Amino acid sequence: MTNSELNRLKDKAFQGFGIFCTLIGLVVLAIFLLNILIDGLGRIDWNFLNNLPSRRAERAGIYTAWIGTLWVLVLSSLIAFPLGISAGIYLEEYGKKNRLASFLEVNISNLAGVPSIIYGLLGLEIFARMMALGGSLLAGSLTLALLVLPIIIVTTRESIKAVPRSIRDASYALGASKWQTTWYQVLPASFGGILTGVILALSRAVGEAAPLIVIGALAYVPFAPSSPMDEFTVLPIQIFNWISRPQAAFATNAAAAIIILLFITFMLNGIAVYLRNKWQKKVKW
Amino acid sequence: MSKKNYKLEAKSLNAYYGNFHALKDINIAMEEKAVTAFIGPSGCGKSTFLRTLNRMNDYIDGFRVEGEILLDNRDIYGKDVRVDELRKEVGMVFQKPNPFPKTIFENVVYGLRIQGIKDKRVLAETAETSLRQTALWDEVKDKLDKSALALSGGQQQRLCIARALAISPSVILMDEPTSALDPISTAKIEELIYELKKDYTIVIVTHNMQQAGRVSDQTAFFYMGELVEFSKTKIMFTSPKHERTQNYITGRFG
Questions:
Q1: Model confidence, pTM
Q2: Which domain holds residue B185?
Q3: Dihedral sign of CA atoms A21, A27, A30, A35 in order
Q4: Domain named ABC transmembrane type-1: which ranges (chain A) (predicted)?
Q5: Predicted pLDDT of residue A192
Q6: Could you report the predicted ipTM of this complex, rounded to two decimals?
């Protein structure tokens, strides 16, 4: 075998290996999805979405859980969105580039990697106990908002950084203040990226059970919450609860609830992709 | 007070980026309604000096100036000067055309909008006047609501000039305004400069000797942060006082 033949063979071999690596994750995911769909799809109907939890599997529904998830989604975005974007704008546009800034930068990135259960403990101490919010929706949403805040700050900074210097110069040269430049030029140009980051962060928050269990969210809530101070449950907790029951019927329920949860996350991701494409087409330099 | 009233004057101006001494004891006086060209090799400080004239370097960390820059005999680095007011008086056009990713109309009226002007008639009239001044009106009057990014490079640069004119400055700074353009677009911009100097004081940084010769009334030659020579363009290009100026102009270094 000549040298070049050997090289071609190596090339082919790596190609095959690469395809295998790419497929392995996808195949596992596909098998998992298929399993869940077979188990749970038949269980999803109007009653399943509208029924309150019950000790009898066939009468149990996820009404309280998905209402709770929706509440948490809305509340934590209302909290995290303005905080995260403002912090990102400050760090990128206003903050001086000194030691303190790089110290903050490193630590915000670190925060993005802290396990979610640690945030749960933080939420338990500060929101549930010190602020006496208990296991309420507000305490849960604040905790999840903290959890996604670093991600939002980092993506906001990345998106703002991508706006070219020349656009800021043009705005300043026409007499605009820093705030006007940020508001009229930098934010509109980077908003697509920011929004994408925020939505992806939220779709992560939607799947969290651990931090909410730590602050005291309940598995069994007899009524859907109607205010931020009410007790609540969310889909991941409900799923966790059902999975841990011995009866097979509850496993079916769990599979059905997983489908609903996946549907919500896929929707959020879909919106993120749509917005990114739409804004990228609009803004080109 | 000086005998003659100059539009722009620098007195013992020194500028630093951190420890780097970028401008060394610059003294220069520019006449009103005339074109002054700054020439010199890369890194000689001509762009830095241009950007001190509307304080565009303010946002750069570690940048500081000593000495005075007088605009209509008033120190623009004085404590009572507001930067946004100064920039309404001293407009700027950049090296690469940098229109906002907005419509042509919104680009031109941006300066007015940030001043809080909402009157639609005022905005429309200003847009038309400014676009006519830059000979762009006939080319774009039917597509004012189209994105400015769809224009050609030369058109974009004229739009940027129109945008600067819209807030009626008295001085226009141009930082190599044609270096990213083709010869035809360059010629149009040079023609435009010739027209504009009837009403405006223009300061232009250029790497193109022929351009400096064509458009400017006075030329300043910078080298290593110093102002080597400053005189009428005709004199500078025919009988420069310094050997270094001559070497640069004739292309022996640069």
A1: 0.83
A2: 8-249
A3: negative
A4: 66-272
A5: 86
A6: 0.91
